[in-house]
Structure formats: structure tokens, C-alpha cells
């Protein structure tokens, strides 16, 4: 008998991978600079993300390069052909 919790808490419990869009936190601050630039842009633009899309792309590129999220195509992330963006995605050496 278990007191204070449902009796089946340990029965049939299975772990599952995170949903798409979930990724590890940047505990070591590897992409902190890009994140701070993006957050400053959001504050400057009253949380309107459209003017900050290039910085969003730079932040996501850093996360993909550092292995903090799975690499994906920019078109899948809605970040292709951005005005003012000259950076191609950084590839990690194989």
C-alpha cells in the first residue's frame, strides 16, 4: 500500500524521448551570447519576433553546432532567405 501517491506510480512507467522542439538546456552557457542578443532584440521590439529572426537563426545555429539540439533544415524552422542574413549554417567537422 502506498500512502500519499497513486498505487500504480511504479507500475508500467515508461520513459519517452522529448517532443520535437524540446532540447537540452545550455547549462554551460555555450550559446549565451547569441541568446542575450536575441532577448535584447525582443525587449527592444516589444516582444515582436519578426525583426529578430536573423538573431534567432544565429542562436539556433549555435545550438545545432554545439550539439544542444538536432540539426534541421532552415526551411523546416521557417528561417530561410532572411533579409540581412549572410550566414550559412555552420557544419561541425566530421
Q: Cα-atom Rg, whole angstroms?
A: 19 Å
Mean pLDDT: 80
Helical stretch count? Answer: 3
Query: What's the total count of β strands?
Result: 0
The string of secondary-structure elements, in order, is HHH
Summing up helix and strand content along with how strands pair, one would put the structural category as: mainly alpha
Biggest sheet record: none
**Shape call:** elongated
Distance between the termini: 54 Å
Query: Which blocks of ≥5 consecutive residues have pLDDT under 50?
Result: none
Proportion in helices: 25-40%
Classify the beta-strand content into a percent band.
under 5%
Description of the structure:
The chain has 94 residues and is mostly helical. 32% of the residues lie in helices and 0% in strands. The protein has helices spanning 32-44, 53-65, 74-77. Helix 1 (32-44) runs antiparallel to helix 2. The longest helix is centred in the middle third of the chain and has 13 residues, at 32-44. The chain is elongated and about 60 Å long. 13% of the residues are buried.
Gist of the model:
The chain has helices spanning 32-44, 53-65, 74-77.
Short key terms for the protein model shown above:
single chain, 94 residues, mainly alpha, 3 helices, 32% helix, elongated
Q: How would you summarize the topology of this molecule?
A:
Elements: H1 32-44, H2 53-65, H3 74-77
Helix pairs in contact: 1-2
Function: Required for the assembly of mitochondrial cytochrome c oxidase.
Domain CHCH: 31-64
Keywords: Cytoplasm, Disulfide bond
Amino acid at each position: 500500500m502506498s500512502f500519499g501517491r497513486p498505487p500504480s506510480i511504479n507500475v508500467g512507467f515508461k520513459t519517452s524521448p522529448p517532443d520535437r522542439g524540446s532540447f537540452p538546456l545550455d547549462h554551460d552557457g555555450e550559446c549565451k551570447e547569441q541568446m542575450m542578443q536575441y532577448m535584447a532584440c525582443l525587449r527592444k521590439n516589444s516582444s515582436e519576433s519578426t525583426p529578430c529572426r536573423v538573431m534567432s537563426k544565429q542562436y539556433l545555429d549555435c545550438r545545432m553546432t554545439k550539439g544542444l539540439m538536432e540539426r534541421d533544415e532552415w526551411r523546416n524552422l521557417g528561417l530561410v532567405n532572411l533579409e540581412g542574413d549572410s550566414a550559412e549554417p555552420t557544419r561541425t567537422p566530421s
